Amino acid sequence: MTETATEPAAGLATLTPLVSPRSIAVVGASDHPARIGGRILARLKETYRGGIFPVNSSRATVQDLPAHPDVSALPEAVDLAIVAAPGPAVPQIARDAAARGVGALLVLSAGFGEAGEEGRRAQDELAAIGAASGMRICGPNCIGIMNLTIGLRGVFSTLTDVPQEPGNVGIVSQSGGFGMGMFETAQQSGLGVSYVLATGNEADVTCGEMVGHLVEQPDVEVIALFMEGVRKPGTLLAAARRALELGKPIVAVRTGRSQVGARAAASHTGALSSADDVVSAAFEGAGIVRVDGPAELVEYARMFAAGRRPAGRRLAVVTSSGGAGVLMADIAESAGLEMPSPAGTLAEELGGLVPSFGSTANPIDPTAQIVNDQSMLRELLTKVTAAPDYDMVAVAGAARGLGAALRETLQAGAESTDKPFAVWAGQPDVARDLTARGVTTCHDANLLIGAMGAMAGYRENRERLLGEPYHPRPDAVPAAAAPPRPLAEHVSRRYVVEAGIPVPDERIVTGTTGAAAAAAELGGTVVLKLSADWLSHKSEHGAVRVGLTGRAEIESALAELAALGERLRPEGAPAAEILMQRMAEPGLELVCGLFTDPTFGPVVTVGLGGTLVEIVRDRRLALAPAGPAEAGRLVRGLAGGRLVGAARGLTEEQAASVAGVLAGLGEAARRHPELRELELNPLIVGPSGAVAVDALAVVAGDGPC
């Protein structure tokens, strides 16, 4: 594993006045706690330990504190101004705050980018004020932020009856309501959360920057992230890399899985990949654990927050209910966990503890005998947790009826090991009691086992990613210099050759005499095909003839293709070329490609290919460039992980040749910014390795290479 390779982003220091301010002004402060400005001020007075300055143009005091008519009249340049004023007044407040030297502005006011063209202009104005002055702006349309380590509760949502205990979890959320919902769920179940940082419309400060700031806080060990869109992707991925190096997991929900990307892509690799596919690939490549919803987000964060990491994927399940054990075993298989039976010494020891009508297999079932003999269960847990046979332990069931004795036994089991140890506890009062004892619990078996699988995956992914070079990415994908345009195959091929990707020998032929000469030079069986920039997918139009050997066969195919080319040619377009290639040796057909995502930039992909690529839709993606290990992982992920090493699949050497193709595609993207797409379909992987027998490039601007 490499040493820490990145440093905190210099700009993140500017978030300190926002997240950990020493003084706060409340603009729009009110005496009425029901109003947003009143509620914020009241909460600050209760718990915040810094200076508080109400701003109200019509009152001399607000909630018994001296008030100031506007930001310009503040007696000092505060770190943070929280704005709870009508939207139209906010730009002038921002200008006054910038002139007064305010460090950061937290804009709760709505009516900006979410409210039409006029609101978007006002939001752009806010962003410009911040950029010109260096004052950071969070929001607008933001629920606020919380930092319980300094008593900052700058949110206007209801906190009545919600515990507010600091912990080692920080929440970052574009949606304030979602973020506060996660906070309440976590707190009600005993998971302490110190920070809730909502970003709203992100006129300036983004989720990625907030993540980058929290990663550097010594009291934060886990970050729960909710995103609706990705602004400044380079900043987010850099923050994730830093978190990976520091061993601080990020668990994330990013909405929009059902929104298939509407990119007008010429290649299959672009057209068949949704924006959500790319987000998942980006997150995986950055070590971010992506989950589907709020329940997973909270429970996975809870498991990571316990601070225990598994050394492998071997899970022991201990249960007094056969049905619960089988259920957890089924879930474990889906989560990619292994459940080996105890062996050797452990098997002998458990055989002496578990009654004959129980089971020493895995799940380990001491049966309801634990009702009569808690000491047996205590000894069993001690032996299982200490055994080298397992990397983590899950206990099914903590019934209320067994009282405190069972909870003490489970506590002893958890304290006997530093391995992940968690209890499926469906009764909230039991779960809270166990949590107070330091035992990790979960109310749902699926979430518990899924979280353990995620921890194992995080460890493996972290080791792999830290062993590869880190490639920073820009925050914005450069705009295309010109409208994208496809290139003919024989022109596209130049990018493939330059990237070092094997291709079959090829000739352009113009007539029967030329075809005969080309066939003699190439030798053996040949292929004829049309090549034109207006003919992106040749097989769909019958524009390929394969397996040609004799002169008569070649001449007949040549005549057919020439006639077909004239029928297909658009009015005014140049005639198609006719290509002759040496036919590749038989092999497995894949499709490899490169396309440019509008958010994250170049992406490489590999999938089961050929003419059925749209139907099969089995593909794996990674942000480009992909290193050897990353490219190899993509190839091995195909066909449910069964492609490499299986009968009629790929050998290790063939898989390595495909990984080399993916690396070459990434290098082509680096060298040629005009290259928007490059597809190899099919890539035939035969005994000698991978050969790209067809290519389609799409460029914007000058090209080809």
Percentage beta strand? 15-25%
- Would you tell me the structural class of the helices and strands? alpha/beta
Beginning-to-end CA distance, first to last residue: 37 Å
- What share of the residues lie within helices? 25-40%
What gross morphology would you assign?
A: flat
- What average pLDDT do the residues reach? 92
- Rounded to the nearest angstrom, the radius of gyration is 31 Å
Low-confidence stretches: 259-273
Q: Describe the main β-sheet briefly.
A: 7 strands, mixed
Q: What's the total number of strands? A: 29
Which short descriptors sum up this protein?
7-stranded antiparallel β-sheet; 7-stranded mixed β-sheet; 37% helix; alpha/beta; 705 residues; 20% strand; flat; 29 strands
Can you give a write-up of this model?
- With 705 residues, this protein is an alpha/beta fold.
- Helix content is 37%, strand content 20%.
- It has 22 helices and 29 strands.
- It has a 7-stranded mixed sheet, with helices on both faces. Strands 19, 24, 25, 26, 27, 28 and 29 form a 7-stranded antiparallel sheet that branches.
- Helix 5 packs across helix 10, helix 11 runs parallel beside helix 16 and helix 18 packs across helix 19.
- The chain is flat, with a radius of gyration of 31 Å.
- About 2% of the residues have low confidence.
